[in-house]
Amino acid sequence: MNIPSRLPDVGTSIFTVMSKMALDYGAINLSQGFPDFSIDRQIIELVHRYMVEDHNQYAPMPGAVALRNAIASVIGRTYGRSVDPETEITVTPGATEAIFSIIAAFITTGDEVLLFDPSYDSYNPAIRLNGGVPVHLHMRQPDFSIDWAEVRQKITSRTRMIMINTPHNPSGAVLSAADLLELERIALQHNLLVVSDEVYERLIYDGTLHQSVLCYPGLAAQSLAVFSFGKTFHATGWKVGYAVGPSALMKEVRKAHQFIAFSVNTPVQLALAEYLQTPDHYERLGDFYQQKRDFFLEQIKGSSFEPRPCKGSYFQLVSYRGISSQPDVAMAEELTQKFKVAAIPVSVFYQDKTDNRLLRFCFAKKEETLAKACEILRKL
Description:
The chain is α/β, with parallel strands linked by helices. It has 15 helices and 13 strands.
């Protein structure tokens, strides 16, 4: 059959490619963003208990009531914002599905969505699959900041949505209070929806505060914020996230979500609800990952790699201009195949494949893993 592709330019994800290459060549995998250490045994025991107690059937479409109540409490404690767990929180199978459901709910043929490169690879296809038009703007070098004057220039009568990501993957940059205030002014002036990918909200360093859209009343009224338990509790394979937003917006998101995934596995939801009752389980994660970032930076000293500032996420960008002039994809391949350390080339996060000779390393690893990898990197 002659079936036209709706995504003819999309192949296998770079994360899958590099992880397979790392496996094939026996390389240390600092490419894909997943921890190589165990999660807390307590939460595993909680999941097991709820399974044994036979909580194994469908959860409610918006999420288990206990988990939505727990999320509402966490949001109130963290951001000082009261949200209704019944109408303003939806639990999803990962942040990616939350983002897709949001786009499917609001974007139709010809609608423009502004997003900022380098951007996570699922954003653009989700927009296109729903008939939208992605409008890619470059974040400014070298600090990966947003030029809000350019944003205003790019807004047209067809602009429907702006997508932001803070802390940012892949750069590790974070948006400031001034950024969120300017975004609020723009969203209100032009009646735009905002999708805020905040999956690394807990992974923020050096005393920096995470600026959530939930903290700005005018902005929150037109925003949907997306979060991830997989990132927070080192369990990326569980694929559990959630979206938070005004009831009128969430009502539409749920219409899409119920036909894309319907619900999330029940025992994990109930385990998370109980686990969240202890604030230490999520409030100390910044310190935990900052130690790993600092360890990686200390270990890489003496190499010719030049680290870029990382204020959040569990990714560290480095420039390799002092080592090679080859394109970043070729550099990542050589590093994996010849030197046995896998990284992600940053050009893949740009729609136009802009190449600033940067690689992304994931430091969500055991110290022995990082030390072994950096021993190799120091020799280059």
